[in-house]
User: Fold this.
Amino acid sequence: MSGAPRIAIVGGGLGGLTLARVLHVHGIAATVYELDASATARDQGGSLDMDPESGRRALLHAGLLEEFRPLSRPEDGELRLLDKDAAVGFRIPAPEPGERDEGEERPEIDRRALRDLLLGSLPEGTVRWGHKVRAVALGRAGRPTLTLSGGRTVEADLLVGADGAWSRVRPLVSDADPVYSGVSFVDCLLHDVDARHPAVAELVGRGTMFALADEKGLIAQRNGGNRVRVYAAVKAPEEWSRSGLIDPADPVAARKRLLDLFPDWDEGLRALIADSDGPLVPRPIHALPIGHRWERTPGVTLLGDAAHLMSPFAGAGANLAMLDGAELALALATNDDLETALNAYETPMFPRAEAAAAQSADNLTGFFHPDGLRIACDTFTAVTSGGEAR
Assistant:
């Protein structure tokens, strides 16, 4: 773009950092305002499989694909679908090193490792840690303005909401709010699984395992550092997942209450909960309306979950956020006019996000149907020819 636009990005997640990085590659400065006090202030979640057409394409535009490779785990690409007796209903094996097709593989990487890669690629001071956004508004001449904790205001030529499900920026362009999906996760971790929990390591395999039955699920995922992250998924009222189940003051009772929801499940599957380390963390699943979009608002746009929050059952959220960030940066780098650039970014983003959100919603409904395992097997069979169904 001509001149030096002041670009403020609210949110230092994967999408916001990808935007800042690709802008930097093209010689455009931006400032990221992040609520967290530091890069290590909180858990960043589990692993991601990086899609070649979205997440890895974004890394290519960011000039980080080669740095990404040694951090990723192509060998952790296995998928297993089990019933509640731990019988395997469907399996996609991880490719052997000599069999990998780099154009098709979806290597795993921990969210923290990926975020650290992006952070390390940015100039010092790009991310302003511990900056809580109290309010956003359209100020003088319609220019977006942030009010930060402490009362300081920041005026920008472009304000990008990369601040997730409960975005502070979204109300400038849309009245939409996330809606509870009816499904809640409770997540936990098992550490040093190969040595301390060999049966769990064998059950989960080298990737992701879904056990589905009774309109419930146990989802386990290999993470780096020899850990397994577990998500217990149940249909429940939103508030129940917090007040009705998880009492931080009594983790033993909370773990028992969670186990009681899976009474006749295989003991090896129940061990994913019973043997877990540390706290149980409730995560109600929300989504924005499928096809969420907004009228062009001068100087403001959204990306990632702020734009198209969806359930995790399309495996697309983080990949799409990174692609959003990369494509917004490219639009800004190749168009002299700000509004032309924003139109160029939003026009393909809306239908792309709508398709992924629809798939995500369909999968959530199907996987937690009474016949969820069969539906999940059919779903994965339809998208891959390498599965081994029973």
Remarks:
- The mean pLDDT is 91.
